[in-house]
Structure of Molybdate transport system substrate-binding protein:
Amino acid sequence: MFRPARLVAVIAACGVVVTSVVGCASPTSSPYDEGLTVLGASSTRVINEVVADYAGTDLEFVNAGSSTLVQQLADGADGDVLITADRESMQRAHNDGTVTSPQVVASNTLVMVVPAHNPANITSVTDLNDDATVVFCDPQVPCGAATEDLLAANELNVTADSLEHAVADVLGKVISGEADAGWVYRTDALAAGEQVSTVEIPHADDFPNEVMAAVTTATDAPAEAESLVQLLVSPEFAQVWQRFGFTPVAT
């Protein structure tokens, strides 16, 4: 059993969250002695501390929308490993030449969340009428693209009151009561616990987003970064993905 990693610092700005996490395993047994910077999709922030425990070293996580992270890499941002919430974002990074040999490590699906007290009495996606305040992800980010697919699949004509560039921001508006409903990843709903109620979205399993990981071409520690990617795709780590609501590739 792994002890929870120790959270060192959190800085939030412009939808980007930077978190330094100290792993609890012995540094002498870790292949990541120098530490790594992981650019992770907002939806993967829930596993940060566990990843650090398995890696057994200090990891810096930069969590934001996948499109934001891909653009940051293209603009020359530091990072050793990129984790995106969908294949399309990773493909853009690969086309930019900023990552190499991407791998699918898990998948994620959308659900609808409402505040725990559910003031608008929303129990189905068909309850999303003009009186409800609804927040979605922006179509430019993976959760927004999946939202558009599901709206079409369910023949719903819903206009969001707000479009967010990170799924964490959608969840935050629902938890705070600013929104009556939002569509987020199943992993986000699970992490929110009793702060929200979850409503299934029909056909969600038909539109999963593939979580992908790759080593950046600018890393100074390619072997260590590749080892971390291999950890994420390993059978050993599959139980972690499952615990947080993802569907792992490895079994």
Notes: The chain has two domains: 36-108+209-248, 110-206. Residues 36-108+209-248 form a domain with the D-Maltodextrin-Binding Protein; domain 2 fold (CATH 3.40.190.10).
